[in-house]
Amino acid sequence: PDRIVCGNGSEELIGILMRCYLGENEQLLLTQNHFVMCSIYGAGQGAKVVLAPEKEFTVDVDALLERITPETRVISVANPNNPTGTYVPATDIARLVAEVPKNVLLILDGAYAEYVDRDDFDDGLHWGDSTSNVVITRTFSKIYGLAGLRIGWAYGPAPIIEVMNRLRTPFNANGSALAAAAAAITDQAHVAMSREHTARWQERI
Ligand SMILES: *Cc1c(COP(=O)(O)O)cnc(C)c1O
To answer: Tell me, what's the pLDDT at 196?
Structure first.
């Protein structure tokens, strides 16, 4: 429990992390086609938003690493990404985790992690156990289909989760959404059905 915090959608948790760890004139590093709420929250903090170019509409780990400066405080990567729909293989994420300085927060946004069924993909949750600076965000809005209820969660090192708990409002995740999420997570048949349905229609599109 001390490594997890729920929120009014994972988007709220990303916002809380930006409020906790990003200050005026500090640097938020994102990929070119990032999840847009990240740069909105970053700008709201008065931070400088730095964008790393992508290759083939895919996050370029080297381009991100090259842009880290002493002012960099937060890096956020959605894997798979929205709006591009591409993903970074586990080995590249491992390199990113290894090379990002330990005083920089790395957010791995796994909003679409459940959809990926490839051998070289890893949802990255284990980084929340084995590092001091990586937080993973997840949501019930996508494969679970509960976007309107607003419920997501963040998983990571206890000291970071503790800081998030200090800054979040005490009533951020509502009771109906928490009850629905607790029920939904037991329904993995729905998750499998939704994953297969999406894969089938992805090909067609
Ligand atoms: C949808 C989405 C979110 C936020 O979803 P919530 O409904 O706030 O949980 C975060 N990141 C990405 C990449 C998304 O597509």
So the answer is: 95
7 lines ligand 1 (CB under 6 A): no
176, amino acid identity: S
**Helices 10-21, 36-44: crossing angle, 10 deg rounding:** 40
The Cα angle at residue 32 between residues 30 and 34, in degrees rounded to 5: 60
CB 82 less than 6 A from any atom of ligand 1: yes
**13 CA closest ligand 1 atom index:** 8
Residue nearest to ligand 1 atom 1, measured at CA: 111
Name the residue among 137, 128, 80 with its Cα closest to residue 108: 137
CA dihedral 77, 79, 83, 85 (to 10 degrees): 150
Instruction: Calculate mean pLDDT across residues 180-197.
Output: 96
Q: Is the CB of 78 under 6 A from ligand 1?
A: yes
Q: What pLDDT, on the 0 to 100 scale, is given for residue 205?
A: 87
Mutate to test the pocket of ligand 1, among 12, 114, 141 (most ligand atoms within 8 A of CB): 141
Q: What is the pLDDT of residue 74?
A: 98
- Output the furthest CA–CA distance in the chain (Å, rounded): 47
Distance CA 154, CA 9 (A): 10
pLDDT of residue 72: 98
Whether the model clears a pTM of 0.70, i.e. scores above it, the answer is yes
